[in-house]
Design brief:
5-stranded mixed sheet; alpha+beta; 8 strands; 144 residues; 3-stranded antiparallel sheet
Length: 144
């Protein structure tokens, strides 16, 4: 993992790279998932995805995570980069590219007990999300 020096005080923060995906259905709704109990930020809603492993490209991370967490198969050609979030949390800095995907194989089903919701982009702000996810909503509203 890379580290950065925090200018306010020589505190080195770990940079965490997480890839996220806005799955968009035929009705223009976006899938969000609620973080399950026991995980950091439990109860908040987020775009599906996960941490990019060492040596892994963000697109492959999404292909792997969407298969593991939602039982769907996504082709890399169907992942379109839209925006990214850069947000400092108390003990790490998150860098999160957001991709849009409109085509996949299989039926979306939660495998980790998380709640799922298909939401119109203009209603995403009705769901409490982690601070890094919130600025991405306006990009989805503009796109969809």
């Amino acid at each position: 993992m890379a580290t950065i020096a925090h200018r306010a005080g020589a505190l080195a923060l770990k940079i965490v790279l997480v890839a996220a995906c806005a799955l968009v259905d035929a009705d223009g709704r976006v899938l969000i998932a609620q973080r399950p109990p026991g995980k950091p930020m439990a109860g908040l809603w987020e775009f599906p995805g996960g941490k990019v492993e060492d040596g892994e490209r963000p697109e492959y991370t999404l292909i792997r995570e969407l298969r593991e967490e939602l039982t769907i198969t996504v082709s890399e050609a169907c992942l379109a980069p839209l925006a990214f979030a850069s947000h400092t949390y108390p003990d790490f800095h998150l860098l999160m590219p957001l991709y849009v995907c409109r085509r996949w194989d299989g039926t979306v089903a939660a495998t980790e007990g998380q709640q799922l919701a298909w939401v119109r982009p203009n209603r995403l702000r009705d769901y409490e999300m982690p601070p890094a996810d919130v600025p991405l909503i306006s990009h989805l509203m503009t796109l969809l």
